[in-house]
Amino acid sequence: MSWINFEEFADLSKLCTIRIGGKARKLYIPKNVEEVKNLLTEASLKGKKLFPVGIGSNTVFSDGLLEHFFVLTRELRKTKTWRERENFFIEAEAGVSFKTILSIVRKYNLEGFENLSGIPATVGGATVMNAGAYGTEMSDILERVYWISPQGNLRVFERDEIPFSYRYSPFHNNGFVYKVVIKLKASKKDIRNTIKKLLEDRNRKQPLNYPTSGSTFKNPIEKSAGYLLEKSGMKGYRIGDVAFSHKHANFLINMGSGKFKDLKRLIETAEKRVGELYQIKLEREIEIVE
């Protein structure tokens, strides 16, 4: 494998928004598609899992030394924009943040992204988990996905070829989303003002003053996860320095020196309580990497 920039014994707690986790034996930092292909091929040959790392807003790393092929997307941040009549397209590599997309949206007054604007994410991670908010999902604005298979082959998928569903894509734990094309529309509405109101609403409802991993569980069909957790007595419930927020029961927060063992115990306690009281099996939205 040709030389690719990497860090040894990288602190994983700095690579997720809840600030909990151990060390990565190696954290690779590719600069282009060819380096990503090489990493996937190498991981496949060695029988190891390749784990892309963006902002880490829905990820929790376990303690200790982790041996996966961790691939940080921070150098994959190229964008390209073009317009076709009323449609506006943004091509963005995996490491492009939603903040960058938001700046383009504001500049050109584009419609379609506003409901997603407050999510702390990169386009790669958001595509893999089909991130969503306020009734809009990433899959609603995607035109095309460039995906590299575990064997290192680049494939291009049009949106209608991809079976997305609620917080799911076929790319999860499978290969690497290298870049995407987002399709938006030039708008006559005041998109800046719409975004401002949505961000204010988000700040009111979510515990953004603590390190958090975002929504812990997916919403079941019967009731929202937040409602079930609150009615089960989990709102504000704390183990060590990890707690379910008083502000939003489905948000885990790190109140200072949170430990992975406490976080895992807290999640398992919540799952057991909701299961016993409501006969509903909560499905995790956050990904735990061990």
UniProtKB/TrEMBL annotation:
Keyword field: Cell cycle, Cell division, Cell shape, Cell wall biogenesis/degradation, Cytoplasm, FAD, Flavoprotein, NADP, Oxidoreductase, Peptidoglycan synthesis
Every copy of the FAD-binding PCMH-type domain together lies at: 20-187
The record's GO molecular-function terms, alphabetically, read: UDP-N-acetylmuramate dehydrogenase activity
Q: Which residues form the active site?
A: R167, S215, E285
Keyword Cytoplasm in record: yes
Q: Which InterPro entries match?
A: FAD-bd_PCMH (IPR016166), FAD-bd_PCMH-like_sf (IPR036318), FAD-bd_PCMH_sub1 (IPR016167), FAD-bd_PCMH_sub2 (IPR016169), MurB (IPR003170), MurB_C (IPR011601), MurB_C_sf (IPR036635), Oxid_FAD_bind_N (IPR006094)
Enzyme superclass (EC): oxidoreductase
The protein's role, per its UniProt record: Cell wall formation.
> What protein does this entry describe?
UDP-N-acetylenolpyruvoylglucosamine reductase
Q: Which organism is it from?
A: Persephonella atlantica
Gene (name only):
murB
